[in-house]
Amino acid sequence: MKKASRFFDTAEVYGPYTNEALVGEALGPIRDQVAIATKFGFDIENGGILNSQTKHIRKVVEDSLKRLKTDHIDLYYQHRVDPQVPIEDVAATIKDLIREGKVLHFGLSEASARTNPPSACCFNR
User: Any catalytic annotation for residue 14?
Assistant: First the structure.
């Protein structure tokens, strides 16, 4: 991978699911040389509504890992903030996934400063 991109960003909602599968297929042979980011937060099976409940995050991370053909996601971020789920609950779920080695880093997409209290998002393994 000389002079090539080493960071690849996708989401379960792209396709839906298709883009993650394509990324997983393409990057499988060079997985240790690249960083993969993907997003969660929509309940595609229920019409694409927002859903960042713990049970849903745990389900979709496993699904993404399978499609991406990897044992971990380098950057896992919430695609849209779910107003029905406190961000602290989302962060706690991701913290557990980090401890389990399934996720390395956590991010937020399209979040405001009010959404991102330091206590919710600053943690170590």
Answer: yes
